Amino acid sequence: MHPGGRPVVATVAAAAGAVRLLTGRGTGAGLLATAATAAFFREPRRVPPPRPGAVLAPADGTVALISEVVPPAELDLPREPVTRVSVFLSVLDVHVQRIPMHGRIRSVEYRPGAFLSADLDKASEDNERNALVLETQTGHLLGVVQIAGLLARRIRCDVRPGDEVAAGETYGLIRFGSRVDTYLPPGIAPEVSPGQRTVGGETVLADLAVEKDGPEKDGP
Question: Is 90 labeled as catalytic in the residue annotation?
Answer without folding.
Answer: no
